[in-house]
Q: What sequence folds into this?
């Protein structure tokens, strides 16, 4: 059994990560801003009981991260896997933010949630990760964060937030080199969730998550700092 933190477990990919890790016998600590609104998470809790801990967490707020940390610490003094999954497509989760209509506050919010918060979560849980068994940090990024693959305009906030998260992952891999902690940036593929509700995403969460879990299980120290997709393929930066 491994102790796993999954941010943004109330729906979409985080919820599916939670279900599949539980099915594999692991203990999950998950959090989101509104976990009480997630009926699905309640159903999962009914099935798995004590192996699933659901706490309130806004990854972008320092006090909330600290409160979450204290709740986790009541149950364990080590974490084996940290999945920084919580993310937003837009500062208010709906505005498209086209050039000519940009909004500084909404752009900053995307960078805060998608790039800075995973770094702050990592720093917060570093003492527990150091005590983990073959510890892994997974930053859920996107192929939209690849500068090499970018061939079109738009999505300034989201794409740059994931490019920044990729850079943070690379730097962390050097920072944590001597601790035995592996850190990767992992792209889930294009998956049907509330984030992609207006798009024609071809994959279901179940397929993406089983692929990503396979990748996570196969990780070795030499993989630290890599930018991989849900099938384990390396993506260009
Ligand atoms: N779907 C795709 O095709 C795709 C592709 C590439 C990358 N991704 C990445 O995959 C991750 C999950 O995306 P998804 O598609 O599952 O999106 P989603 O269905 O919109 O779910 C986002 C999750 O993040 C949580 N969240 C948002 N802001 C938060 C905050 N400040 N603090 C804590 N939790 C927060 C939400 O919970 P609450 O609303 O309850 O807070 C929700 O559980 C994101 O990082 C996204 O960028 C997705």
A:
């Amino acid at each position: 059994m491994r102790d796993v933190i999954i941010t943004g477990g109330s729906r979409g990919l985080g919820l599916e990560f939670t279900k599949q890790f539980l099915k594999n016998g692991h203990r999950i600590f998950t959090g989101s801003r509104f976990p009480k609104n997630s009926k699905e998470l309640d159903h999962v809790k009914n099935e798995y009981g004590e192996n699933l801990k659901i706490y309130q967490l806004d990854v972008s707020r320092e006090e909330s991260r600290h409160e979450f940390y204290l709740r986790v610490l009541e149950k364990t003094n080590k974490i084996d896997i940290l999945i920084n999954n919580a993310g937003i497509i837009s500062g208010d989760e709906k505005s498209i933010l086209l050039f000519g209509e940009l909004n500084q506050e909404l752009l900053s919010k995307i960078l805060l949630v998608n790039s800075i918060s995973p770094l702050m979560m990592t720093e917060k849980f570093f003492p527990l990760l150091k005590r983990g068994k073959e510890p892994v940090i997974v930053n859920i990024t996107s192929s939209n964060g690849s500068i090499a693959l970018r061939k079109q305009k738009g999505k300034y906030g989201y794409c740059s937030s994931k490019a920044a998260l990729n850079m943070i992952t690379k730097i962390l891999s050097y920072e944590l080199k001597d601790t035995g902690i592996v850190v990767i940036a992992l792209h889930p593929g294009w998956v049907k969730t509330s984030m992609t509700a207006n798009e024609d995403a071809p994959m279901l969460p179940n397929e993406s998550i089983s692929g990503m879990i396979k990748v996570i299980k196969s990780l070795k120290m030499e993989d630290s700092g890599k930018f991989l997709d849900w099938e384990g393929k390396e993506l260009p930066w």
In short: The longest strand covers residues 27-32. Helices lie at 12-23, 39-48, 62-73, 104-130, 156-175, 205-217. The chain has a mean pLDDT of 97.
